[in-house]
Amino acid sequence: MYNPRSFRAEEFISHTEVMETLEYARQHCNDKTLLAEILAKANRRKGLTHREAAVLLLCEDPTVTEQMYQLAHQIKLDYYGNRIVIFAPLYLSNYCVNGCTYCPYHAKNKHISRKKLTQEDIVREVTALQDMGHKRLAIEAGEDPLHNPISYILECIDTIYHIHHKNGAIRRVNVNIAATTEEEYHMLKEAGIGTYILFQETYHKESYEKLHPTGPKHDYAYHTEAMDRAMTGGIDDVGLGVLYGLENYPYELVALLMHAEHLEAVHGVGPHTISIPRIKRAEDINPEDFDNGIDDDTFAKICALIRIAVPYTGMIISTRESKAVRQRLLPLGISQISGGSRTSVGGYDMPEDPEDNSAQFDVSDSRTLDEVVCWLMEQEYIPSFCTACYREGRTGDRFMTFCKSGQILNYCHPNALMTLQEYLEDYASPHTKEIGEALIQKEMQRIPNAARREKAIAYLKEIAAGKRDFRF
Ligand code: SF4
Ligand code: SF4
Questions:
Q1: Which of 9, 143, 202, 368 could pair with 247 in a Cys bridge, judged by C-beta atoms 3.0 to 4.6 Å apart?
Q2: Domain-wise residue ranges, the chain
Q3: Predicted confidence (pLDDT) per residue in 102-143, tens digit
């Protein structure tokens, strides 16, 4: 029985509801009146239900797809402006007891090198990340109660927040670890994490169980209900995502939107972020072994559809994707990207170790952070290192209210520009600095509130004089 308010995975992600939705979409995807109504609703920034989104997804009319792209672009500008938030993943440990068939960290892989960062290693890794200019990390670890217990994760978070090297500081640590108990989520909240991210991988229960044959992750309900435990445990911001390529994408997209609707219905706040990873080649993993890979056109459509269906959510694309794919998706709703990423354990401090095979997946975009920042600015995006909301307590429903309130140009815009100025002063190459300073000059004029603009200009002068960490 489908019930978005239920706490049981099989009720809020009802298989029957997904199948009926897809059947409904197949029957209506050429209904021009309905398509126009759905696009009009999206245009009113009302978001879309999973049924409405499914109709657009299955519609193959290129003019409808084009309208979706334009809407996605405009909605992204309305909610997030031309800012792109920058982050980096930090792999703490690749010990894992699970058997995920698409991930090289699976327990049966005996030829990958297993590593776990010590606290001293973390100081070296984070110092290297700070020297690149990063302020926001997503920490990642396999599931292993012996090697990676919650006490280890908490210790790592504490270490990261206390590393201050030159002008560097990590101001927000997002966490991507296995589904756990409400009590442990509460501990993560107390440790001051930003977003708790957990990819569902696939919402299709039967496939899920085949893809996760062994280990605690085999339990579909425990994994799917994790976000409820996280939010009940006090975590305000959660990040969803499926791994495209494991199951057929219409099923995944409908179920993902049902999950977002469930969080909104039960906790009053939807997903803070939605990631859109695709399965990639890695040690012991060949993406061609999986039948449901999606091409770039479909990927672009999924991206645009998520943006118009869940207009307030942050959307993340990682260095799994190439520069060309990232460039294509940026105008379709992406608001966060990783830059200069290493997906191996210890990869920042020793990036060129030829013996290392501890990466979770091959990176398709291997540019440095400076190159990514410059590339964004050349396209008139503002790379943002801002973490003000988290540090001002604007999380969960307060963040959503803020995000929906249209205060982007008075708050986010100057905050992003000030953090960019910090980056330019401390880390940028001369070429990047030159482009960035011209962009900041121009973008400052777009702050509507005159007093706020004057204050921001004064802060910029203080940043140039060596002071740091201003925010609205
Ligand atoms: Fe372990 Fe996560 Fe990889 Fe699965 S996806 S094997 S849980 S690290
Ligand atoms: Fe993001 Fe908040 Fe900063 Fe705006 S003020 S850029 S929403 S962290």
A1: 202
A2: 77-366, 406-464
A3: 999 999 999 899 999 999 999 999 999 999 999 999 999 999
Identify the pLDDT of residue 355: 66
Whole-number Å distance between alpha carbons of 471 and 387: 9
Report which of 110, 108, 96, 99 is spatially closest to residue 214, judged by C-alpha positions. 99
Ligand 2 mutation target, pool 384, 398, 417, 443, most atoms within 8 A of CB: 384
With a 6 Å cutoff on the Cβ, whether 103 touches ligand 1 is yes
The atom number, within ligand 2, closest to the CA of 394 reads: 2
Residue 175, SS3 per DSSP? strand
Ligand with an atom nearest the CA of residue 237: 2
Q: Do 419 and 386 touch, CB atoms closer than 8 A?
A: yes
Residue 405 — pLDDT band, cuts 50, 70, 90?
confident
Tokens 């204050």, located at residue: 455
Mean per-residue pLDDT, 231-247: 97
Task: Give the CATH H-level superfamily of domain 77-366.
Answer: Aldolase class I (3.20.20.70)
| CA 332 to ligand 1 centroid distance, Å | 29
User: What tokens does 212 get?
Assistant: 């996760």
Q: Measured between alpha carbons, how far is 48 from 9 in angstroms, rounded to an integer?
A: 21
Q: What is the largest CA-CA distance in the chain?
A: 63
Residue 98 CB less than 6 A away from ligand 1: yes
Cβ(18)–Cβ(277) under 8 Å? no
**236, pLDDT greater than 70:** yes
Looking from the CA of residue 83, the nearest atom of ligand 2 is: 6
Ligand nearest to the Cα of 135, by number: 2
**Cα 346 to the chain's mean position, in Å?**
22
Q: Which atom of ligand 1 is nearest to the CA of 199?
A: 5
The more confidently predicted of residues 254 and 403 is 254
Q: Which residues form the pocket of ligand 2, taking CB atoms under 6 Å from any ligand atom?
A: 83, 384, 386-389, 411-412, 415-416
Which atom of ligand 1 is found nearest the CA of 201? 5
Asked if 439 and 82 count as a contact pair (C-beta separation under 8 A), the reply is no
Q: Which ligand is nearest to the CA of 199?
A: 1
Mutate to test the pocket of ligand 2, among 316, 387, 389, 419 (most ligand atoms within 8 A of CB): 389
- The tens digit of pLDDT for each residue in 270-326 reads 999 999 999 988 888 888 888 889 999 999 999 999 999 999 999 999 888 999 999
355: enclosing H helix or E strand: none
Residue 374 confidence (pLDDT) above 80: yes
